[in-house]
Amino acid sequence: MASSSPSSSNRQPEYDVFLSFRGEETRLNFTSHLLKALKDPGINVFYDEETLKMGEELSPALLKAIAEAQIAIIVLSEGYASSSWCLRELCEIMKRYTEEQLIVVPIFYNINPSDVRNLRGNFKKSFDEHQRKKPAGDVEQWKGAFAKVADLKGCHIVGNSYRSESEHIVTIVKEVRDKLKSKSPSSHSQKLVGIDDQKAKIVSWARMDQIRTIGICGMGGIGKTTLAEAVYDEVSSDFHYHCFLYNVRENFEKKGRQSVRNEFLSSLLKHDASSLSNLVLHCKRVFVVLDDVDEPNQLEDLCVEHFGLGSKIILTSRDQQVLRNGDAKIYDVTKLNEDDSLKLFSKYAFKQDNPIADFRYLSNMFVNYAQGLPLALKVLGSTLLSMPKEDWISEMDKLKKFPEKKVFDVLKISFNGLGELERNIFLDVAFFLKGKNRERVTKILDSCYKCNVRSAITKLGDKCLLDISTPDNILWMHDLLEDMCWNIVRQESDDPRKRSRLRGLDDVQLVLKDDKVTDSVKGISIEIHEPPQFCPADFEKMTNLRFINLYPISWSAVNAIISDNWNDDQIFLSDELCYLHWRYYPFKSLGSNFSPKNLVELRLPRSKVELLWSGDQNLQNLRVLDLQLCSKLRKIPNLSTAIHLEELICTHCHSLVEFPSMKRLTSLKRLDLKNCLSLKKFPEFPSHLNVLDLTGTGIEEVPDSIGDLLQLRKLSLSSSSLINVSSNLSKLESLTDLELRGRQITEFPEIPKNLSKLCVAWTGIERVPSSISWRDKLQVLDMESTRIQNLPSSIIELEALKVIKLFDCTRITNFPNFPEKIEEIYMNNTSIEEVPSSSISRLKSLKKLVVRRCRRLKSLLGLPPYLETIAADECRLLQTVSFMDQDPRTFQLKRRDLIAFKDCVELNGDAINNIVANTLLKIECITEQLVERSTVESTKVLVEKKHSNWIRREHIKEKVYETSYHKVELVCVLPGFQMLEQFEQLHGNSSMAVELDPDKCSSGLLGFALCIVVRSFVKCAKCSCKCQLITRSGDCHTFIHNFTPTIFGGGGNARYIVFDHNMLHEAMPYVEASFQVQPNFAQLDCVGVRVFYMDADRIRRKVQLSNDFESSEIFLTEEDIGQTGSSGSEEDQRNFSPDNGYEPEPNKIKTIFSLLIEGLQRTLQKVFSLCEGKMEQEDA
Fold first, then answer.
1. What is the DSSP track for 1051-1099?
2. Does the residue 21 lie in any domain?
3. Closest listed residue to residue 478, CA positions, set 342, 693, 601, 333
4. Three-state secondary-structure class, residue 986
5. What is the DSSP string of 585-620?
6. In whole angstroms, what is the distance from residue 1068 CA to residue 1122 CA?
7. Which partner from 218, 236, 668, 1029 sits 20 to 30 angstroms from 1098, CA to CA?
């Protein structure tokens, strides 16, 4: 998000509002009150007694004022028409209104609007008088203007009304402010990019009574000030007293607290505040923005706590703790997405919204470098403006080593405010620990600095230098902050040997090859692209080394490291090491002199290590030992002193035959011995173990000691060698996830009572005991490729069961009675012959039914109509398919709906029609819910999409539209090669045009679905459809729809019904739709389309009525009430909402009552449904 100063050519209007009124009648009462209410929030009003100078002619001054105003408010009182001067004003106002250069707001003050329209009563008398004294042409113009203003929507004020004049004035002023905002965007908002959603969120907070202080937080350059400016422009007019104080931190440093306080309060209150009492502030309702606050006491010095009731304070800061001290509701500013980043960059680099074609690739490189940081995008774009391409390339090369100074200086402000410990931790994370779990990082750095660093990491997060709120508790930082850290370390010395941290093979090799000892270097992190030019003995020179992160990323580097050249070398590692991660470590051990006393994490994946160390070692700090894929490792050393070890990972250590006792490792939570093929004996484990994976080991028996692992949550025991499992397994009350695989397991295991996931796939189990019903917490049951025949009837009692997998259980012949709340059923390649209606109709929560390749299946009856997935491909005997009736209100919108009956060659005509009807029903339900969710008319967004023609090897980028609806997709696959009768076949195999009804398209919603008949395709086939919608004026809107037939089964001779969110379009006068389908590695027979129209406004009114009845409020749209809008086309005028005094006609009253009755019926239906459900529960 960014803003720039407005062009000098964009002159601001001198007046916001022109106020026209009959002075003798309203000057001292209504009009004076209205004038004050307009001026209080800062609206500039032309009022004849205050703005005209002595001696100035009246008529030219008034004409100038009307021409410069944005809104005209006409106070039509009983004597208004008696003044020829008022009528001349009115003519000029309505002339500019007709030219759409002025918004007109009539106020019918104690008069009847119909008398104005029809020139009755005193108005007729006034015009009769003018007819006798004034030129006939002038009077006719006045009459026309007078009649026209009566047709405009405005405010009707009646003396005996239930609303007071002050209430009407509040409404008028609010509408005027709203119109001024929409007509005159501020200089801050004219060139903003990517800010609208964030601004709307903060504005909504600012208008909540319960929120007083809002904190806008983020790293330097993220756009906090720009966002605050946009919110200020939107909200400040709601307050009489408002002020934006920039650069609080800098001003306090330069001017001192007292000076800043006096300047701030004087600017806010518009008078000298040097001796102001705090009691005065308690009476002031203010709106202030304090930009770049970095100390809590700054809020006290600026008297924030003394502002009156209803005040709003917005703070921007890089420090969340400062905002928390100010009791602020905190909003974290997000970086720009890729599209907005490119747009903002282009505004500064090219002075337009998109890059020049020849510079697009380079532009994307700079945008990727900036990573959504607005400051960097603006600075880089401004720097590159008008530069030739060669200089762009040079600038990018320079940035890799020397960051842009303006960006660097802004980012470094937060770093400069850190203490020594926080600075070191920040640099360590940037060089070695970015992207790692916070708990892991804390333990590593605790050992490194010999103190608890948790609060220091929290402080870095508060200052927006680290992101500590990511999923999975991962520490992260912006790429430009990472670059800043590298530059800070580079500035420590020109000599790499004197720097604290090294990152880069050239610098590391320079230091290692030097003969001198260095204790400056604390860590190295290297991506090795090529064979290294140093030897292992060189590490001995780095006596203070705490971090090693060495990972080859090319095969030439890997081969050089694991070659025999290094095998016999002796490595010397610093005893200060806290973190060692060396992929493809080439040595047999860590060295005879190495002491791992400070080591927290040791990770040597894919190494050639055979024995880590000899003898007993002090391992009290060791937390993680990762030796996966160490194929030569035969023995794990004595770990008895590793009392804090939490993870031990030895997967694929094929030579590992011996494991020490781990009974004393009371902190061990995870042990992974997956595919340790030579491990035959079940090891001794500590009772606190949480996760144990013994998949693929040579273990044949699980002993009774398994019952001691009382905290075990996940156990994997899949092995072809496994024969016997102890019954003590059932004692593991903490176990929730159990996996047992192995053909030699023939008996269903005794499982713990709290198990939620059980996998016994690929076993020799033939029978499921009826006692399984006792496991009432079981949610997932996987029995794929077992020998079971039919499930026991007690399976229905597993009330928590959500997913059951019975793939390739070929002995199952009957569709079981599943629990009612089951959501997913997988019965591929079973021997069932039917899915009875009585069984399937009970399953109210079912989302997925997969019965592919059930070659005996003949019927699917009474299917729930709104399943997310129905997959019955290759059921070659399937003949009949039917769906049960279900209330459309139970339909739930999903990301993807699949209905697949490919290669069901025996399906009869009724079955095909039922499936198609169900598909069209789901399309209708999806359409209604998309419209309901959008709440307002859907918009179209122009985006760049790439689509490919693989046969021609072309990759085409094209600007196409995306609708703003929630993204959804529906695909139905049917056998056959003829066009479905419900679709209109296009002329030609892959392209056609369809005529549309522009009137229906303009007033409602246009939708379409495609039917694509595919003859054959291969595994990588893809299809794309380009849809072009043509309007009456010839405008063309292009949409791209992609689908992959191979996802839904391979082969050919299939018919695909395709629908997605981009196939819905609102309120445009489209006259034609053309479709062009481009198959890649597929052969099409024909393409068809089904066009439909729906009333989107009706759907939204229905939702609004339903919501309002639930909240005991009734909402009627302008169309429902039937109010007549203005004859003009000015959008701002049509939306002006104060009542103009019209009375609804009888037929419109009928519309209102029909809507009320419809809403009441829906409410009563909900009540009856709730009562019926309660009665059923009581009967049960």
1. EEEEEEEEEEGGGEEES--EEEEEEEEEEEEEEEEEEEEEEEEE-HHHH
2. yes
3. 333
4. coil
5. --SSSS-TT---TT-SEEE-TT---S-S-SS----T
6. 23
7. 1029
Q: Which helix (H) or strand (E) holds 289?
A: strand 286-290
How crowded is residue 935: how many other Cβ atoms within 10 Å of its Cβ?
9
| Pair of tokens at residue 796 | 């229905």
Q: Which residues make Cβ contacts (< 8 Å) with residue 1017, sequence separation at least 6?
A: 1045, 1046, 1050, 1051, 1052, 1079, 1081, 1082, 1083
Please write the tens of the pLDDT for every residue from 656-689: 988 888 888 999 999 999 999 888 888 888 889 9
**Domain count of the chain?**
5
89 part of the active site = yes
pLDDT single digits (tens) 800-812: 999 999 999 999 9
Terminal CA-CA length for the chain: 59
The mean per-residue pLDDT over the stretch 492-510 comes to 88
Q: What is the 3-state secondary structure (H, E, C) of 52-94?
A: CCCCCCHHHHHHHHHHHCCEEEEEECCCHHHCHHHHHHHHHHH
Could you tell me if 220 and 363 lie in one domain?
Answer: no
Tell me the pLDDT of the chain averaged across its residues.
83
Chain Cα centroid distance, residue 633 = 46
Q: Are residues 368 and 429 in the same domain?
A: no
Q: For residue 279, give every residue at least 6 positions away whose Cβ sits within 8 Å of its Cβ, in sequence order, or none.
A: none
Cβ-Cβ contacts under 8 Å for 81 (sequence gap 6 or more):
87, 122, 123, 126, 127, 142, 146
Q: What is the pLDDT of residues 1148-1174, one digit of tens each?
A: 444 455 555 655 665 555 555 555 544
Asked if 233 and 374 sit in the same domain, the reply is: no
CATH number at residue 436: 1.10.10.10
**Residue that finishes a domain, picked among 365, 383, 401:** 401
- Residues forming a β-bridge with 1164: none
Closest CA to 555 of 581, 533, 529, 587: 529
Residues 469 and 378 in one domain: no
Q: CA-CA distance, 1136 to 1125, in Å (whole number)?
A: 10
Instruction: Quickly tell me which residue has 């290669």 as its tokens.
Output: 903
Q: By the 8 A CB rule, do 1077 and 1024 touch? A: yes
Last residue in a domain, options 371, 401, 431: 401
Catalytic annotation, pick one of 24, 57, 68, 89? 89
182 backbone dihedrals φ, ψ, rounded to 5°? -70, -30
User: Apex CA 577: angle with CA 576 and CA 580, to 5°?
Assistant: 175
Distance CA 1004, CA 908 (A): 37
- In terms of Cα–Cα distance, which of 577, 601, 313, 576 is closest to 443? 601
1081 burial type by CB count under 10 A (0-12 exposed, 13-18 middle, 19+ buried): middle
**How far is the C-alpha of 310 from the C-alpha of 288, rounded, in Å?**
12
Any idea what DSSP says for residue 494?
S
What pTM does this model have? Answer: 0.69
- Which pLDDT score, from 0 to 100, does residue 568 have? 53
How many Å apart are CA 1013 and CA 900, to the nearest integer? 14
Chain centroid to CA 748 = 45
Question: Could you tell me how far CA 709 lies from the centroid of its own chain?
Answer: 41
> Three-class SS of residue 155?
strand
Q: What is the mean pLDDT of residues 989-1011?
A: 79
Q: Which amino acid is at 1139?
A: D
Q: pLDDT by residue (tens digit) across 625-661?
A: 999 999 999 889 899 999 999 999 999 999 998 888 8
Q: Residues 982, 1079: one domain?
A: yes
Which are the contacts of 448, defined by CB distance < 8 A and separation ≥ 6?
Answer: 428, 546, 578, 579, 598
Ramachandran angles phi, psi of 363, nearest 5°: -60, -45
Distance between CA atoms of residues 1131 and 804, nearest Å? 57
Residue 205, helix vs strand vs coil: helix
Side chain identity, residue 49: E
Same domain for 282 and 416, yes or no, is no
288 and 379 share a domain?
A: no
Domain of 416 in residue numbering reads as 407-489
